[in-house]
User: Fold this.
Amino acid sequence: MKKSILIVLSVVLAMGTVRADEGMWLPLLVKRLNYADMQAKGLQLTAEEIYSVNNSSLKDAIVSLGGFCSAEVISKQGLLLTNHHCGYDAIQSHSSVENDYLTNGFWAKTKADELPNEGLTAAFLVRMEDVTNQILGEITSSMTPAERANKVREITQKLVKSATEGTTYNANVREFFNGNEYYLFVYQTYKDVRLVGAPPSAVGKFGGDTDNWMWPRHTGDFTLLRVYADKNGNPAAYSKDNVPLTPKHSLPVSIAGVEKGDYAMIMGYPGSTDRYLTSFGVKKELDLHQPNVVKIRDLKLAIMREYMEADPKVRIMYASNYASVANYWKYYIGQQKQLKRNKVYDKKIALEDEFRKWVAADANRTAKYGKALELIEEGTKAEALTEVANTYVIEAGLQGSASILFAFRMGRSLAPVMKDAAALAAAKARFDEQIEAHFKDTYLPCDQKLFAEMLQLFQKNVPADQQPAFMQELVAKKFKGNFQLFAQKAFETSVFTDKNRLQAFLQKPDQKILDKDMVSIVAQDLFAMYMKMTQAAGSAAAGLQEGNRLFVAGLREMQPNKKFYPDANSTMRLTYGSVLDYQPADAVSYNFYTTLDGAMDKEDPTNDEFVVPAKLKELYQKKDYGRWANKDGKIVTCFLTNNDITGGNSGSPVINARGELIGTAFDGNWEAMSGDIAFENQVQRTIVCDIRYVLFIIDKYANAGHLIDEMNLVSTPVTALAPVEQTPVAPVVSPAPPKGKTTAKKG
Ligand code: ARG
Assistant:
């Protein structure tokens, strides 16, 4: 009796201090900042087993995939697991109407069948290092922002050089806490990454845009790739002589399943967050930026859809582009809604009020931080003057019609070689590549319509004094405001809208032709307007940067007992917490996992987002689940954790207390779409594709069991919470009252 009271008490105490769900931690610092807390949550590994420079550790199985997603090594032969939506572009590039791997999936029968992907890279972190002192040691308070930036660049270059000289490594230095800290990252980056297997979109993208960013989810969002190296294990461009990489570490794969409360952590490459954004920034987002992004993308998507639905070839050409435009279209719809629902603006105001009081209470603080919020307010106001125009320049202009960006990029590449026949000849192969890549995925009738309608929307919504020159000189004067006619003439004549015209032009490029080329003029004028606005905001932008740096430094001083983590910036991070359900709304409660039953329930053969492939249905009906069902005999499709991730984390491994793979993270949830600006403890969740669903699809659906044979499967369950006795964590503040009974304690 006594003993059980003690246990309950210590569990409650541990729960009170274990509030570790928020935070994207730097692996290098985990030992110092988080380790005790992680143990309290149930971690059974040492800190060295997570991050070590000299010995193989978890970090050696984690990959930055092409700089936009994450992936993990799951076999001794360089096999990588990532998300279907991360491999989507690669899958599309190999697809045609005849061989439609997007629709049907792709499975390499042997290594020789694995498909190379031009330009796709896999970077492994060799080490990271705190270089704050090297950099800030050279910065003085009298430096102008430009001088400061130059100094940072100069030291960065030296650090990168000495970290990579005489190696096959590449490196960079990244800024943290808005310029208060700097870290060096050294990578080994492999350039031969091949497509091994992908489920059909009806599995990998099941639920489509309707289910995107939402729970409950039934998506098998995974793809398999393989890293190849030269015979010495070094990075090399694609060659058939390359061999599968022997990794320093590959993750064991746990098929024991997950329970609510189980320890769960994620390591990967989150792209960017804005957790230190002030109320001024939130307001600008809500009033100016986000509604316009949504408005522009609404129209862009409708135009793409029109052409994609009419022609299967066009559907494949635009599949990847459409998916990524739709992804952040829905993201911003959700973010506007949830910033309001989660009262993020009010919370920011409250923090800023506290900050102002803290600053005002002390003369030294006032001298140091007194200007911070003012600088931010002024800088944000200055930015707000051009926010709408900037949004249109990017979303409706340079990224509106693909021809505009293509003209811009070709123009840039061409400028230095235009008058030099030898240099031009030397650049020919590179140009040919660019040209092929562009025309492969651009359907000109669709792009012409995008050109007309995006520019028209621009003209309608951007203030008159921020319109690029062509609006007046070409559209108004020459085409009487008729954007359709303008687009038609531009596409009929431009060298950038016809491969043959472009190749002919490149034989003897002439600036005079470009000066009259309407697509080129649009690209140049848009860019000129963008530069003009950037320059106008120049000093305010520098002030904003300084304000942010001071604000974050001040906050950390104001809350000395709080553990701060830096915003995501595409560097490796670790987030830890547990498998957990949530309550999305009053009287509504969501379970922490979904099953194939739910996919069948959502099935709608008339809606391509909810088609269930015949083979999958058959397996479901026969309950032909092999070793992959849970203890109730069901296939678990997805589950939830309270880990802290964002875009870029897609494809990251979800790892249990013993360092084994239990799933791949692929999404966030609707109720926490504001999460990149403020983490929502109660409702923010990571959506994970259960590894057993991945294995079930590989084995039973694709008959690709040879891939599973490469993996190291383990089936012993992990006890949910490590014995509390070994965790000497005392509550810092009074612990939050426990909610209901603790289900986290097991065994
Ligand atoms: N929302 C996910 C992310 O940004 C992408 C999901 C892809 N699925 C889709 N239906 N578009 O990581």
Remarks:
- The longest strand covers residues 181-190.
- Residues 1-18, 720-747 have pLDDT under 50 and may be disordered.
- Residues 85, 205, 208-209, 212-213, 323, 327, 647, 650, 667 surround arginine (CB under 6 Å).
- The first helix runs from residue 2 to 17.
